[in-house]
Amino acid sequence: MSVITGISASQGVAIGKVFLKKEEQVRVPIYTLAEAEIPKEIARLKEGLDKTAQALQNLHDKAKADVGEDEARIFDVHRMLLLDDEFVEHIETTIQNERVNAEEAVAVTEEVFANMFANMEDAYLRERAADIKDISKRLILNLLGQEEKSVAGIDYEAIIVAKDLYPSDTIQINKNFVKGLITLEGGKMSHTAILARTMQLPAVVGVGEAGDEIQEGDILILDAKKGEIIINPSEAEIEEFKKKQAEFEAYQQELLKYIGTESVTSDGQHIEICANIGRPSDVPAVLENDAEGVGLFRSEFLYMDSPEMPTEEEQYQAYKIAVEGLGGKRVIIRTLDVGGDKEIPYLNIPKEENPFLGYRAVRVCLEMKDLFKTQLRALLRSSVHGKLAIMIPMIISVDEVRRSKELIAECKAELLAEGVAVSDDIEVGIMIETPAAVMVADLLAKEVDFFSVGTNDLTQYILAADRMNPKIADLYDTCNPAVLRAIKKVADDAHEAGIWIGICGESGADTRLTGFFAAIGIDELSVSPSSVLEVRKTVQSINAAEQKANLHQNWNI
Questions:
Q1: Greatest pairwise CA separation for the chain in angstroms
Q2: Are strands 13-20 and 219-223 parallel, antiparallel or unpaired?
Q3: For the segment 404-453, what is each residue's pLDDT rounded down to a tens digit?
Q4: For residue 424, what are the contacts with CB-CB under 8 A and spacing of at least 6?
Q5: What is the per-residue pLDDT across 324-336, written as a single tens digit (0 to 9) for each?
Q6: N or C: which end of the chain has fewer CB within 10 A?
Q7: Which residues are catalytic?
Q8: Do 414 and 352 meet the contact criterion of CB atoms below 8 Å apart?
Q9: What's the CA gap between 472 and 418, in Å, rounded?
């Protein structure tokens, strides 16, 4: 028996036999071509590209049938990456210039493109390096005439162990047999982590070289809350963790009793508990977990998951599903937050050395007005199907707010002139995620209907600590008094102006901070759907007045 540790990505306890996928390193042959063989090798490459593109289309069709179009769209993106001119040209150029076989040229190109994504600042895009590896591996296997080991064949209680899991793997996971996930690479924003939270599967990621201890056929205990993995435990340990597993499942069942109850503190202060989502397909999870609305719809995923610019109609249909699906509960949709670190090829936004301080979010939208207006028109059209709120990210000045509101008014006037209905009850708010917005929050509050604090970015900007850099992970702490004082100032400014304020960053689900948020009068917390009931339970357990009285003692405020 031995114990290794990693990053907790999705809580829970799992016990099962190892299904080992990490060893699947494709052996890439390397050989030199004669000059006359190069055209034939490029033709062989094109055959492999066609075969791989068809396989991705088949995966898309299967995913669409099993889980819907939104989840299937990732395979459209994979086809786009596979057939991207730069990607294909790099492979062909490597074959021609280096006179190597197609498999080796793909491997070289994979390394170049995967490194490009891996070095991006944005966590979501950094994890897209896995997509490049996925399509490259699939292409190499097709060139070699080999098939990959599939998780679809698992027919026993298993814990999947892999270097990383690709979308084409995870779409095949059967929860009846797969009880947990372990990856050697990745972080909390990796595809595997996001999937695990969505599927409510226990998961530990970022195990690193320690994961090499795990062998096919081993029995594992996965204590995902602690980020611990016990390899080949004793019978006594298995029995102990079966009890923990039962306790966790009982706790999850206990949380269900909070469905239909109010998110009110013991002394009567209401804090609305909403959900963060990224796609229309997340709406059922919002409803199942009884969220009081959507506090953050990250609209950029509509752009990232599409091989080309989504049209006004495509965006309208996506927003309509969310707004209509919530049945009158408020849905806050954040306008496009891309640029700099969040690269979308068809937008042709230049790369930057420091993208978090660069051309992104509202800065892109106010310059690319046609892009912005297309989204705003789609949002406004969706407003008649429920209760819509529009939120502008990355604000640093009153001028940005006013210019955004002018474009919203312009789009509304155009739609009405075209005979298209638009609701007269649309709240417009902004994200507070920059130190500049904190400093002028009193002025910004006079311009908008609400604030939503993006604690992820705000924390790293205030502390000058990259939230994805493991070397300074100890510095990135939302509980730092500097961050908490900033949030309190913004809350005071919001209430002074008579507007409401929410939290939409990861700290909203951190139950250590729930008392602090209640003490300073935060009106809304937006968290992942699976966290809604636990946060509601915590809200009901605290006394807001007592928390306020002990604010300085507990939080150094």
A1: 83
A2: antiparallel
A3: 999 999 999 999 999 999 999 999 999 999 999 999 999 999 999 999 99
A4: none
A5: 999 999 999 999 9
A6: N
A7: 191, 504
A8: no
A9: 54
